Amino acid sequence: MRLVLPVKRFYLAIDLGAESGRVMLGALADGRLSLDEVHRFPNHVRCEGDSLHWDISALFGEVKSGLRKAAALRLPIASVSTDSWGIDYVLFDDSGQIIPPTFHYRDPRTARGVERVRSLVPWPEVFAETGIQFMPLNTIYQLAAEAPARLHGARQLLPIADAFNFLLSGVARAEESLASTTQLYNPRTRDWSPKLLSALKLPRELFPSIVPSGTKLGTLKPELAHELELPPIEVIATCSHDTGAAVAAVPGSSDDWAYLSSGTWSLLGMELRTPLLTERCRDFNFTNEIGHGGTVRLLKNLVGLWIVQECRREWARQGQDLDYATLMSMAEAAPAFASLINPDDSRFLAPGDMPQKVAGFCRETKQPVPVTPGATVRCVLESLALAYRRTFEQLEELAGHPISRLHIVGGGSQSALLNQFTANALGIPVLAGPVEATALGNVLVQALALGDLDSLAAARELVRDSFPVTRFEPQDRSGWNEAWGKFAGVN
């Protein structure tokens, strides 16, 4: 049952993404939820030689600018919370100051970390302990590549969103949805893995206590509240992991649906009550991350619109500054199934000349090489949809039952072309929206923590009542089934 408040309640969501961040204002009243952008800012990657870093101090400065703008609205704001991408972390010293650099998950040092972990703990044991899929970007491999002296000089390690909540409240905690992405968390014990910390000689005291989603951390630090002209509002650890927040806002009902959080990354999965740590799950390279209320997000991380984003950056560098709407129109007009790639090929993980990487894959697999932006983007989008089909079929096998519909949320849900391709490839209806699922989930969990909503089911009903969803029905099944055979041949 949904609670309808006698007065409007306001919540601030700090939503940090790999390309940009936002401070968003959520409002709940009369059985409806609204969301407005207060402040948007870029998230620039710093390159120092071959190394990639995040500028956490600059990001926090932008967050404070957004909070000042929110304060100027003079609204009765109840709380604030941060969500972010997973895997990366911030180190703090004894005085609570950031120890630079904060490494980017695409930093090449992780290759060294993978080799070190493999020499210490066999991969099947790592999966059995954590239930997390292998990705060379994972926190476990980043920490294995750290200089021992740097870790020795650190007092606290916090995942990105939890670090921002610490900067706001002064309380250092790791929220479980974000902790679960590190591959150092045991989903059975709901705590850090002593076995892995010991094997990697990582000091236990470096890792904060883990708290469930919806934990009140305390109020905004007095000096920060004074600086920003905000009252001492609650700082809440919602779902600190952006995908955990996005899944909380999926407007699904019953239990025969799957979700796709679509953006730079594509995360395709479903909700379970308990982790699935079987050999088959490990072989399929699925992951068990924690969601709101201790649910398990059984999913696979796939390279998503990152490939298109990198193509667009390269074309802009060459003088063709094409917006996404133009690229999608050009892709729609290009011939179907001329060429296909494997989006999970390792060459597509790193930044670089992405159009040439796509061309190189096609050349190596003896397919026509796309020579225009439209042909390149169509090749990528069709390949993504077919990669979703491969993962979807694996998900159905792991679930042990068919899945009748797919909810697509996040920025990628705005791509009608990719949504239609996905419905075609999977052969089931696709329901696209809401776009701002991550910030919405952040706000909804704040409302749940404060007692303004009484259940996750009520929160999802509120999303269904408040935001439009677009339905895409499967088309051209024979053509897509033929393309599925071609896709298998180049993967």
Jot down its keywords.
single chain; 491 residues; alpha+beta; 19 helices
* Residue-averaged pLDDT: 96
Structural class, please? alpha+beta
Strand order of the largest sheet: 19-20-18-17-21-22-23
Helix share of residues?
25-40%
Number of helices: 19
- Rg (C-alpha, Å): 22 Å
In terms of DSSP E residues, the strand content is 15-25%
Shape: globular
Q: How many beta strands in the DSSP annotation? A: 23
Separation of the first and last Cα atoms? 47 Å
Largest sheet: 7 strands, mixed
Contiguous uncertain segments of 5+ residues: none
Description:
By secondary structure, the protein is of the alpha+beta class. It contains 19 helices and 23 strands. The strands form six sheets. It has a seven-stranded mixed sheet with strand order 19-20-18-17-21-22-23, sandwiched between helices. It has a six-stranded mixed sheet with strand order 3-2-1-6-16-15. Helix 10 packs across helix 17 (437-449), helix 12 (306-317) packs antiparallel against helix 15 (373-399) and helix 13 (324-333) packs across helix 15 (373-399). The longest helix has 27 residues, at 373-399. The protein starts with 8 loop residues before the first strand and ends with a helix. The mean pLDDT is 96.
Outline of this structure?
With 491 residues, the protein is of the alpha+beta class.
Helix-strand layout with pairing:
Blueprint lengths: L8 E8 L3 E10 L2 E11 L2 E4 L2 E4 L1 H17 L4 E7 L5 E4 L5 E2 L2 E2 L6 H11 L2 H8 L8 H6 L3 H5 L3 E4 H10 L4 E2 H4 L5 E2 L4 E2 L1 H6 L10 E2 L3 E5 L2 H7 L5 E4 L4 H7 L8 E6 L2 E8 L6 H6 L2 E4 L5 E8 L2 H12 L6 H10 L20 H11 L8 H27 L5 E5 L6 H11 L3 E3 L4 H13 L6 H11 L3 E3 L4 H13 L2
Parallel strand pairs: 1-6, 6-16, 11-14, 17-21, 21-22
Antiparallel strand pairs: 1-2, 2-3, 4-5, 5-9, 7-8, 7-10, 12-13, 15-16, 17-18, 18-20, 19-20, 22-23
Helix pairs in contact: 10-17, 12-15, 13-15, 15-16
